[in-house]
Records
---
Amino acid sequence: MNGLREALWVLLLGSLLGLELIGKVPPTLHTPLMSGANAISGITMLASLTLIVRAGDNPVLLLLGAASLAFALFNVVGGFVVTDRMLAMFSRRAPAERGGRSN
Amino acid sequence: MALSTTLSWAIDLLAVLLLALGLKGLSKVRSARSANGLAALAMGLAVVGLLIQELPGPQAWLWIAAGTAIGGLAGLLTAQRVPMTAMPEVVALFNGCGGMASLLVALAVALFQSSEAGLVEIVSIVVSVIVGAITFSGSLVAMGKLQGWIATPGWTQGQVRHGVNIALALVALVAAIALPAGPAGPALPLLVVASTLLGIGVTLPIGGADMPVVISLLNSYSGVAAAAAGFVVGSPLLIVAGAMVGAAGLILTQVMCTAMNRSLLSVLFGGALGGGGTGHVGGGGDEAGYSRITSCSAEECALALEGAERVVFVPGYGLAVAQAQHTLRELAKLLEAQGTEVSYAIHPVAGRMPGHMNVLLAEADVPYEQLVEMDAINPDFPRTDVVIVLGANDVVNPDAKTDPSSPLYGMPVLEVDRSRQVFVVKRSLGAGYAGIRNGLFELPQTAMVFGDAKAVLQSLVTELRSAA
């Protein structure tokens, strides 16, 4: 960390950005938006990766890192795919995108 | 080295920009799908940027590959197989796993932190552990409740629960203060256990009806947990993204609360109002509260449909539970074939989660144009011949407009009582989510059709077919 002060600025500005980004959301999109934001919160996988890379030869650290990476990726991949599945249903006008889906 | 640092720095900036654009695009129908892809791309970029900078060794690559394969594959399979009706549960599950990831990172760092760990490190580890554990256990409880695996235990409705939760929070606080003394001591396990139990303790008393709000809030928490993990490992990108999701989740939670006419405080601390999704704990409003109820059979309902020129369906939670959206679409097609004008009135909080009903009906191939939002369809009810309410209750309660003593008073509702004839398809006269009596049921133009939404729709389809 290049200093706590910078990190706190980043935290503050990031929070303000988040507050501003989602202003008026049509109810139709509440569920997909929640699911998409949820996928983004899996960004904690960056921390998992950092942990693994800096673990050296420590087997406990490597294991914890890999486990948290798996959990985070489960969140990320699952979240984005599920969101896409939901949103695909709203874009009916492109029929080519249908088909091949099990549900 | 210098080049790769500059490169990864540039990639990080680009990733943040794309994440923000993605989150923004997700809140507009037209751009939502591509925005989702954009956000996914941004996440991929962020990973690339990190790997360029950190340059993992062969052993690290092995562990990265293992974690990626297991988590990615499990996520992909789960996401592809889950039925649309189970979406809220799955979002809860994913969310819980995100919390777990932050928790594990913080644990690992706490166990092996260098001796000169400063206050900032300690605080961010503590926050990450607490919020991560609460997110994890809370999300799993939310999922269990939505699935109907977990009921609402009676004791959680009493005042005892506040005592229990406060005690748990105090234990977590004490453990957090004791943590710097050394990672080997009992402080760390105590912190994890107390936080996990706290997550269960605060989620368990909340009724199924309010679960979407809770999931949204927990989603916000997992953003906070990610930001805390960003402080732990010193990643500005993680802090920005976590803070963004945390704040956006908070807004979304607030929007949902407004749509449901509930305050966040009463959702969190008010306990279950009737047990909702789990069908447990009868709050108020039992069957004895009604008089002047007219009930009728599916045949009579079909007869009315045959003569109708304009029909509006009001789908609700009961339709989602019965998975009857496809049968509903079939019925609508039959009606359209006989020249009837069909539309669907969508209340902002219809379904199990705001927007969930749109997804379900889209899945059943209902044309998007036929889904009409509340404000657009309310003026049309007086010229509607037949309204069929399918497993919705509070969102069509006229008391919300007329009766100041009703708990729903002030909530915007679908004004189906202004149409010529209303059929309410419902399992029984039991109360809705909120355990509130519904004046609609007693109106002269209203008839109840008792039964499972899918079974009733099926017999309506059969009736209409035989008539044709």
Note: Helices of chain A lie at 4-21, 30-41, 45-53, 59-88.
---
Amino acid sequence: MSNLAVLPIVIPLLASVILAFIPKKTKASRFLAKLFAVVYLGYSAFLSWVVFSDGIIVMQASGWIAPFGISIVADYLSVVLVLITSIITTAAVFYAPNSLEKLQENHYFYTFVFLMIAGVTGAFLTGDLFNLFVFFEVLLMASYGLIVLGGGKVQLRESMKYVLFNVFSSMLFVTTIAFIYASVGTVNMAHLAERIQEAEQSGILTGAAILLFFVFAIKAAIFPLYYWLPNSYIVPNPVVSALFGALLTKVGIYAILRTFTLIFVHEPGITHEIFIWLAIFTMLFGVIGALSTHNVKLIVTYNIIPAIGFILMGIGLFSTTGIEGSVYYLIHDMIIKAALFFLVGALVVAAGTSDLRKMGGLIKQYPVLGWLFFIGSLVLAGVPPFSGFIGKLLLLQGSLSQEEWILTIAALVTSLLILYSMIRIFVRGFWGEDPGELPKQKKKVHRLTIPAAVLLVINIFLGVGAELVYPHIETIANLLMDRTEYINAVLGE
Amino acid sequence: MEIVMIILASILFATAIYNMLQKQFLRIIIGTVLLSHAAHLFLLTMGQLKRGNPPVLVDGVTNYTDPLPQALILTSIVISFGVTSFLLVLAYRTYTLNKTDNMDELRGSKDE
């Protein structure tokens, strides 16, 4: 029974190993990648169903009982995020053959994708701080492989910066683990939560908590540590950007959500107060970045940053409503970011350029793409009845009930500016006059729009079907706020 | 003993940061290598440097060496070894394509 929890890590790992043997056989590797993605999706759905009906599943590796062994914990939040990851993976694997060049596809693209998914899934499921570091490294190593794939001049230049930042933050992570191990003598998250409660989170632990936040903030791209993100996310192929934008920063924010609702909860006056201010700046600076550029890829990439700000806002509020909002927004944002990156990839193919000033009138030739993009923009900005609205509603409810006026105003202004920055692409690119520089021949983009359309349908369901989704989000948030169930499940008391 | 090791680790940290702030690729990579050494040394010291019996459960022995930091460091060393070798290859490829190993010249311009 408990082995169910580890299978979501094993399936993509197995897929990546098998696909590593046949990189040159394009047809076979495409078929196998799709097959594995669908199996992974089906299994994640099954696991979510099992966990939501029977409760948390814990696997103790090799039978070493926590806190001595490594625990893999499939709790409500983890399985939902694994399910979303599997949906995005499946969409990406179906999108990839139409977007990648043959050279890129034949150089272990699918191997790296599945290896990265194994790392992401592992990071979501692990119940051990050091194990989290290991899975971070797994996903980063695979992401290094993906970001240099095809290796042009600019791409390698930006990859170099991306790799250096991540190496630095990883080593800082090890140092932080050393601090925490020295002061409480364990790295198991549930055990840490228990021990830190006994020690009443002394000053050194709060210091370690802030250092840990710093490490995750680099990965999640929180103000003022987001400057590495925009340029390195636009250089690879759109499908790689979509995977990065939808998954990698979200793993960072998930780690913050997990550690600061489970482990470091006793000094919210220090830690969570900082989060609120950082959330305000992250939202505002991110959206200002999105307004500052004419590159359509860069606009969507910059929009990752305010979304992280919204999620951090709920963690900072640290109330049930706030956490509900964060979880809702996290799920919504993972899917919509993947969809938008797919659509922007199709848009760049259609227009032959990523410069907004050279586009115009594309809606005549590509009506489906245009309207999908329009819906995507509304979903991202949180226009009712789409999914972004529900998440933001919960977040704003939370912040208003705690009388955080500046935060509320910043969130509302940011939402408006996000809508403006996205609609600008629609107005300038799809409406307006054709400047005459666009390729006359119509490109085939319908294969690129189908995966994005499927993701958008899921997003619309999250919004319109909020009545069905919300009770589950409520369960997740209640479990995050009341830590005892998680701790008891892992430590077996 | 611990205090000496901590001072050594802090010197390594300082050297690593100094090297990482340089402009040449190779110096930056040496910086990351030193940083990983510093972090590992720090982790080892934090597990307390006591000399005792091997961490195998036998009756009558009470003074054990803590095995966990060693296990953690071993994992971390392997990872940083892999990442460093990847970084070296990446730096070489970036140098051959961009014809420079100076970070100042790799900032990129607006119109790309």
Note: Residues 67-98 of chain B form the longest helix (32 residues).
